[in-house]
């Protein structure tokens, strides 16, 4: 059995987690201070967003030195202390590796600019076309062309993301050796896991061509050579140790590729993040729009990925929240009228699925979108770009703000709520971004004294460790046509677990499939009253329930 099947990961956005020195920015010492809290929650692995040297054009995903810690977050001594404290508490550290591109301030790029051929070959440099246009018509993920002039050499460099993030040429064996050395450096420091940023776009072809769709995504995403590169990285770095957990952030991937990246026989990664289920409130696929989420689409995507990955022996990373997503409770629940029920519904739905659950900081308290009123309250570059674009499209400022309140990445980046004191106990200084106004009601201190969400998360985490059916069972969707309930069953060595999650505020009655009525069951966990499973069940607002069926003696044999 793979140990990561029963682990739970907690994601820390260090800038907003805990500030130890009053400069308004969270840091490594702040994380160390809160290790006992995380150990109490029961999580196993702490994934920390990048804290390496960076000009911070893209929140640290533009790395200028892979093996040095940005003074904003602390020192290497702080990191070594963090490793020592996590070992003491039986926790592990997962680092965020951004290996598709570097900052243009990285020494490699700077040496390339100075004319050093060796380092020019680290990046993807091409001549413009004969007519002077860009080498290809690809579009950057942050808007505009994916090419920029490489100083005054006449060549251009590829940047699939921000213009300050130059793509590395993984076809160059020297580049692969450099990035493998980085991974090995952190392994030697005692790191036990890696999250690889946009790792499925590292496989560019040798000859780059124009895209028929004028965008180019299909020409660099999930290319067969990306699998070869990841396998090689596995063999030369983390694959040498049996207990290292890896997850690939997969941009626009498919189930077929998800299986290939994460099936243990392929020796690539432990699991994958896919994002399709978090685009179900995009009107016509456009993020910066306002619409109620499409529940049937959400359910179908979760089900397709669960069934597909289960059949192909792939492994999902399970999540609703991260540093790039609005708060799930504000998105799929009702934090005003059904706060605790919504928070627990989302937790149970994801934690009882097949895969490894990820908890994003504050999720275990039910933290919500901050609902900032002014565009100046938002720090995120993508949000400000969207404001300008929506303005250019003729929307009124109040219409734009309604969209931004729902979709900005800053929704999840506001400081963690520790207490009801000033700045939610996050900092004694001026926080780098405003604290959400509801921190006096939603904070760690109050939640642990009076609330029930934190203890619900604890129970879900404990159940995964105690029950192989949760960690190892197969998955099958049930009641797939039901308009407001997502139902599924987990199966393992004759045991079954039936999970029913109701995503709306109106009570609903559902007919339970006959196959579950012929066996004895017990109520395992839920956010309502304990129930007995009957032919017809009424589920209240945002109610979720799970019933456990023991294996028949026959089936055990």
Residue windows where pLDDT falls under 50 for at least 5 positions? none
Q: Main sheet, how many strands, which sense, barrel?
A: 8 strands, parallel
Number of strands: 22
Structural class: alpha/beta
The coarse overall form would be globular
User: Strand portion, in percent?
Assistant: 15-25%
- What Rg do the Cα atoms give? 24 Å
CATH homology superfamily name of the largest domain: Glycosidases
The CATH class of the largest domain: Alpha Beta
Distance between the termini: 20 Å
Number of helices: 17
Task: Tell me about this structure.
This protein has 557 residues and is of the alpha/beta class. The chain has 3 domains: 3-100 and 173-460, Glycosidases (TIM Barrel), CATH 3.20.20; 107-167, Oligo-1,6-glucosidase, domain 2 (Alpha-Beta Complex), CATH 3.90.400; 474-556, Golgi alpha-mannosidase II (Immunoglobulin-like), CATH 2.60.40.1180. The chain is 29% helix and 17% strand. It contains 17 helices and 22 strands. The strands form 6 sheets. An 8-stranded parallel sheet has the order 13-12-11-5-2-1-15-14. A hairpin with a 6-residue loop joins β16 (474-478) and β17 (485-492).
